[in-house]
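Async update (no meeting this week)

Hi team, since we skipped the sync, here's where things stand on the single-chain job. The sequence we agreed to prioritize is pasted below, unchanged from the tracker. I ran it this morning and attached the output directly underneath so nobody has to dig for it. Comments welcome in thread, and please keep replies under the output.
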Amino acid sequence: MARAREAFARRGERLTKLREAVLRTIAESHEALGAYEIIGRLRQKGREVAPVSVYRILDLLLDADLVHRIESRNAFFACHCKHDSAKRPVLFLLCEKCGTVGESHDPRLEETLGDSAGAVGFTLHGAVLEVSGLCRHCAD
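Output:
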């Protein structure tokens, strides 16, 4: 949460109790969570929150590079990357069986994508790739 407090302070904002609760809910999960799953988990902890509030908080967390969004699932998970690598190409590894999400920031990915884009005159500023398959635990 210290990183989150710092990120919000840099933006001139506070990490409110509700923002922290949403981020903590996401961070405690090993799988990507949709907004209504987050609301359900908060409700189980005795906290009622409106969907619009969760969506606003998710936007703030995304802007602060504290969470990632899995486009194909419209779900979110905590960003574990170093702050300086948050805008580099990232490969999300989505397990089809258990729902866990892994992430890779392999420099070779950035190089390959940059070379491919450059070959057609395109300047790469970032990329998100989502790959489905089985994690090592489910593949056994």
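Quick observations from my side:
Residues 89 and 129 are 8 Å apart (CA to CA).
The radius of gyration is 16 Å.
Reply here if anything looks off.
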